[in-house]
Each structure stands twice: as structure tokens, then as C-alpha cells.
Automatic annotation (TrEMBL), chain A:
<protein>
    <recommendedName>
        <fullName>Phosphate transport system permease protein</fullName>
    </recommendedName>
</protein>
<keyword id="KW-1133">Transmembrane helix</keyword>
<keyword id="KW-0592">Phosphate transport</keyword>
<dbReference type="GO" id="GO:0005886">
    <property type="term" value="C:plasma membrane"/>
</dbReference>
<feature type="transmembrane region" description="Helical">
    <location>
        <begin position="20"/>
        <end position="44"/>
    </location>
</feature>
<comment type="similarity">
    <text>Belongs to the binding-protein-dependent transport system permease family. CysTW subfamily.</text>
</comment>
<feature type="transmembrane region" description="Helical">
    <location>
        <begin position="126"/>
        <end position="150"/>
    </location>
</feature>
<feature type="domain" description="ABC transmembrane type-1">
    <location>
        <begin position="86"/>
        <end position="296"/>
    </location>
</feature>
<keyword id="KW-0813">Transport</keyword>
Automatic annotation (TrEMBL), chain B:
<keyword id="KW-0813">Transport</keyword>
<keyword id="KW-0592">Phosphate transport</keyword>
<dbReference type="GO" id="GO:0005524">
    <property type="term" value="F:ATP binding"/>
</dbReference>
<keyword id="KW-1278">Translocase</keyword>
<dbReference type="InterPro" id="IPR017871">
    <property type="entry name" value="ABC_transporter-like_CS"/>
</dbReference>
<dbReference type="GO" id="GO:0016887">
    <property type="term" value="F:ATP hydrolysis activity"/>
</dbReference>
<protein>
    <submittedName>
        <fullName>Phosphate ABC transporter ATP-binding protein</fullName>
    </submittedName>
</protein>
<dbReference type="GO" id="GO:0016020">
    <property type="term" value="C:membrane"/>
</dbReference>
<dbReference type="InterPro" id="IPR003593">
    <property type="entry name" value="AAA+_ATPase"/>
</dbReference>
Length: 305, 264
């Protein structure tokens, strides 16, 4: 066996470097998978204890409107109905998304199609800055500006879904905008050229060609915005009123899943029913964000025509 | 690269009816002067080829003709179409492009169905009657020699077509607008020989009704399909003559070198 044949059949330094690199990657992936599984297991086991250990019926939990974990009703069941929180959470999320989308799209179209390079250079950091502002600051501004404003205009306390929606609107605007800009910019230049060369106006080109082919990306942007709104706790808690009641209108105090969690989690004892009930709320939040994430994947896959 | 005297040129007079002509056309990319004093007359219902080495400005020149260089480059000089200077800033560019269609180097159908690709521009132009749309759809696809291949699948995605079919769809899409002039920017350079010959056949039949200006890298293609040929070098139009003359009796030295392969 000559030297070359021997070298061909033995492992060299490069081979071991390869193993080492792969090893590190797998280790990191393993850690993250472990972490996610632990979180899922922890929340699920705690959240399901309400139903398995404390014998609350799932249907009651999802449809009843009284939230009073300490008390027991006439039939001996604990009074745990999460419907008000679920309804409020969905209301603020959907309303915020509905209000934010047109504004975000407008800004995104301006940035991707109209503004000069310099304009984009100025706008981009402004929008990124909005993402970076801590939620407590948004909540504080909401508390000192929006709540009094709503109180003056509509009466009542000023706390409620409307205030929550307005705060969330500002918070998810940059998310939807920057993701939409990316998706508009990824529409190939030759689509625009083809459209213009056919005598289409700029507006026709944007509306019928660019926006059409960016739809999956824009929907993804909206869903990411909704995920952020759904999971936002602090800012919402500061303006929503924190009353565990079925919302009667947009300006009556209410409480979302997240705001209920942040308000109450410090006041309950680990392992008791009131604590488990809060974990059940967390489980709903987790499931919702899973569903939203899957929706994003699904839209991404359906993608283009 | 050989040094040539770029100021000498031979430009033949076109005695036929003109579809389009340029007068002292200059193009600048920033400070970079890309096209110098282009004076060309394009005859009606003929195919005119623009040839030249890469970077000589032939695509740049072509793109001026339907104002696709707006916001990309500065274009000075006149482009006369129906006795109107369409290079003026007062001109409605969208109308210009309705009369002067363009097909690009890479097939670029929209991510829509075949049918929607064709009627896209028609609907934008305000044509909404169903019969009219159907008729134009069929006619343009037939003119582009694509009808027989796609007539059963008009609602299929245009992206599912082969490259050659996509390019013919792009031609069909342009002629659905019934333009006067068709500009083609190396329409066959991304295609295989069979698709190329189909495109060439299509162009031969289209020239009955359209004045065609085509940019091509492929000298055989230029000699096969065109009636007139312009040779460009470094932004200058060196020679413009009937295709036969350009290829068999070139008047200028650079042209002779280029068509005989002694260039550079």
C-alpha cells in the first residue's frame, strides 16, 4: 500500500473538524428542542391539571363567563369560565390588525415603490425604533394619553377594548410594515417592467401585479402582527381595565388572557386551583400562537399561483 | 480591443414609410455618456436588428424607444412617432407603451393564468366586454403561434409553461394590445434552438402587421430574420443598412470585423 492509498483510507484532521462542527450544531439543536419540549410539557401539565385534578369541565372553561376560582357553584363545580378573556383577547387582536393593516400597507407601498433611497434610509430606522420601544412605555403612554382621551370622548372610565386596541395598533404597525416591505421588495423587478411595458399605469402595476404577488408575504406579516398583539401583556394590562367581565362594548373595562395572567399570577399559590386555572389560560395562549405559526407556514407553502 | 474611429459612420436613408425615428438621441447614466447622437429611421412593417458587442448600448437604445428608461437614465434628443416627439416630458408614457410594446430578454409572465396574462393589459386599458377579450385572447395567441399548445389550458398558470412558450406568451401579451411597433430585447437568448426557431418564425409572420425592432447577440439570427441591421459600438451607431449589405458588403471597418468575427 503506497502513501496515497493509505491517506485515502485514514481519517485526517479535516475529518475530525467536520465531526466536531457537526457535533456542536447537533448539541445546540438538541438543547433548543429540549427547551421547547420542556416548556410545552410544563405548561400543558399545569394547564391540564385544572381539568384532570380539579375536575373543571373543558366545555365550562371555554363557554362560561364567570371567573371566580376561589368559589364553588351550586353543583359543586368551581366557577371557572374563561370566555370573557378569550373574547377580549380575540377582539383586541382582530381590531388592532384591522386598523393597522391599511396604514402598514400604505407605508410599505410608499417605502417599496415610491420613496427615494434616501427616504427609505430615513423611514427604516424610524419604523425599527417603534419595534424597539419597551411595551411598558407604550402602556404608559396609553394610560396617560389614550385612556383620558377615550374617557373625554366616549365617557365611562376610558379603560377597555378600544384603548387596548389603539395601543396595540401602534405596537403592531411596525411589525406588519417592515415584513410587508420585505415581501413587496421581493417581487421581481421584471414583473413591474413587464406590466409597465404593457402600458399599465404605476398604480395598476402596484395594485394588480406587485400587491397580488406579494399577498402571501403580506398575510404572513399580518399574522405575525396578530401574534404579537395576542401575546402582548403589559401594555394591554395598563389600559384595558382588568375587570374579568364579558365585554359589553368597546369602552367597558375588560381583561385579556395575558392581562389576567400578569395581574393574578403573583396572588395565587402554586398547585392550587386558582393557580392551575391561570396555567390553563397560558395553555390557550400557547395553543393560539402555535395555530398562528402554523397558519404562517401554511400560507408560505401555498405561496404563489 | 482594436481602436476604431467612432465618429465615422454609414447610415443609409430609408425611403420607405417610417414607423419610428430618432434624432440626435443621447443617453446618460449619471455622468456616463452611453449613447452618442443616434439618428436612426425604422421602416414600417420590417424587422430591424440592432447588433453589437455586449455593453455597446443596444438594449439601452431600445429601452428609450418606449420610455422604459424613465427614471433609469437621462435621455436627450427626439424620438419621432407619428410626427410626435414621444421623448418629450409632456407625453403620456402609458399611451406610448400601448402603441410601442416590448418583450424582454428573460420570459417574464406574471404569476397568473395564461388567460389573465393576456387580458391584463386589455383590462387596464378599459376593455371589459367578454367577447372582445375572448377574441383578442385567441387572436394574439394564434399570432404568437401558441394557441394550439395552450387552447385547452387557458386557466393554467403561465409559470407552468416552458421557457419558449413563456416567451411566446409574452409576445402574445404585447400584441394583444395591438401596438404599432414591437420592441424585442434579445427575446431568444435564454431559449434553446427549437424554441428560438419558433420565435423567429413567429416574428416573420408578425411583420405583416407590426414594425419590429429586435436586439440580438446572435448574428445568424439577425441575418436570418431582419430586413435592416444597425451595428452599434461603444454607444455609437457605426453602420445602418439593409441586412444583406451589412453582412455581405459592410461599409465600415468595425462592422466588417464584427460580422466576420475578427473583432476585439
Amino acid at each position: 500500500m503506497d502513501d496515497i492509498q493509505k491517506k485515502l483510507q485514514t481519517k485526517s484532521k479535516a475529518t475530525f473538524q467536520d465531526y466536531f462542527g457537526k457535533g456542536i450544531c447537533y448539541l445546540c439543536i438538541g438543547l433548543i428542542i429540549l427547551l421547547v419540549t420542556c416548556i410545552l410539557y410544563f405548561i400543558a401539565s399545569k394547564g391540564l391539571a385544572t381539568f384532570t385534578k380539579n375536575h373543571v369541565r373543558v366545555l365550562d372553561f371555554l363557554t362560561k363567563t364567570n371567573w371566580n376560582p376561589g368559589a364553588i357553584d351550586a353543583k359543586g363545580h368551581p366557577d371557572i369560565g374563561a370566555l370573557p378573556m378569550i373574547v377580549t383577547s380575540f377582539s383586541v387582536t382582530l381590531l388592532a390588525a384591522i386598523i393597522a393593516t391599511p396604514f402598514a400597507l400604505g407605508v410599505a407601498i410608499f417605502m417599496a415603490e415610491f420613496s427615494s433611497k434616501r427616504g427609505t434610509k430615513i423611514l427604516q430606522p424610524v419604523i425599527e425604533l417603534l419595534v424597539g420601544i419597551p411595551s411598558v412605555v407604550y402602556g404608559f403612554i396609553g394610560l396617560s394619553v389614550i385612556v383620558p382621551f377615550i374617557r373625554n370622548v366616549f365617557g365611562g372610565t376610558g379603560f377597555g377594548i378600544l384603548s387596548g386596541t389603539l395601543v396595540l395598533f401602534v405596537m403592531i404597525l411596525p411589525t406588519i410594515t417592515s415584513l410587508s416591505v420585505d415581501s413587496l421588495k421581493s417581487v421581481p423587478m421584471y414583473y413591474r417592467q413587464a406590466s409597465l411595458a404593457l402600458g399599465a399605469t404605476r398604480w395598476q402595476t402596484i395594485y394588480k401585479v406587485v400587491l397580488r404577488s406579494a399577498i402571501p408575504g403580506i398575510l404572513t406579516a399580518i399574522i405575525f402582527g396578530m401574534a404579537r398583539a395576542f401575546g402582548e401583556a403589559l401594555a394591554v394590562q395598563m389600559v384595558i381595565g382588568n375587570a374579568t367581565l364579558m365585554p359589553k362594548n368597546l369602552i367597558s373595562p375588560a381583561s385579556t388572557l395575558t392581562s389576567k395572567l400578569t395581574t393574578d399570577i403573583g396572588n395565587t399559590v402554586m398547585g392550587t386551583l386558582p393557580n392551575n386555572a391561570l396555567w390553563s389560560l397560558a395553555l390557550i395562549l400557547l395553543l393560539m400562537s402555535l395555530i398562528l405559526n402554523m397558519l404562517v407556514k401554511f400560507i408560505g407553502k401555498r405561496g404563489r399561483f | 480591443m482594436k481602436e476604431y474611429n467612432l465618429t465615422d459612420s454609414y447610415i443609409t436613408d430609408i425611403t420607405e414609410k417610417k414607423a419610428l425615428s430618432t434624432d440626435n438621441l443621447q443617453v446618460y447614466y449619471g455622468d456616463n455618456h452611453a449613447i452618442f447622437d443616434a439618428n436612426l429611421n425604422f421602416p414600417r412593417y420590417k424587422i430591424t436588428a440592432l447588433i453589437g458587442a455586449s455593453g455597446c448600448g443596444k438594449s439601452t437604445f431600445l429601452r428609450c424607444l418606449n420610455r422604459m428608461n424613465d427614471k433609469v437614465a437621462r435621455v436627450d434628443g427626439e424620438i419621432m412617432y407619428r410626427n410626435t416627439d414621444i421623448n418629450s416630458s409632456k407625453i403620456n408614457v402609458y399611451e406610448v407603451r400601448k402603441h410601442i410594446g416590448m418583450v424582454f430578454q428573460r420570459p417574464n409572465p406574471f404569476a397568473k393564468s395564461i388567460k389573465e396574462n393576456i387580458i391584463f393589459a386589455l383590462k387596464n386599458a378599459g376593455i371589459n366586454q367578454k367577447d372582445e377579450l375572448e377574441e383578442r385572447l385567441e387572436q394574439s395567441l394564434k399570432s404568437a403561434a401558441l394557441w394550439d399548445e395552450v387552447k385547452d389550458n387557458l386557466n393554467k398558470s403561465a409559470l407552468a409553461l416552458s421557457g419558449g412558450q413563456q416567451q411566446r406568451l409574452c409576445i402574445a401579451r404585447s400584441i394583444a394590445m395591438k401596438p404599432d411597433i414591437l420592441l424585442l430585447d434579445e427575446p431568444a437568448s435564454a431559449l434553446d434552438p427549437i424554441s428560438t426557431s419558433k420565435i423567429e418564425e413567429t416574428l416573420q409572420t408578425l411583420k405583416k402587421d407590426y414594425s419590429i425592432i429586435i436586439v440580438t447577440h446572435n448574428l445568424q439570427q439577425a441575418s436570418r430574420i431582419s430586413d435592416y441591421t444597425a451595428f452599434l459600438h461603444l454607444g455609437h451607431i457605426i453602420e445602418y443598412n439593409s441586412t444583406v449589405n451589412v453582412f455581405t458588403h459592410p461599409k465600415m471597418r468595425p462592422t466588417e470585423d464584427y460580422v466576420s468575427g475578427n473583432f476585439g
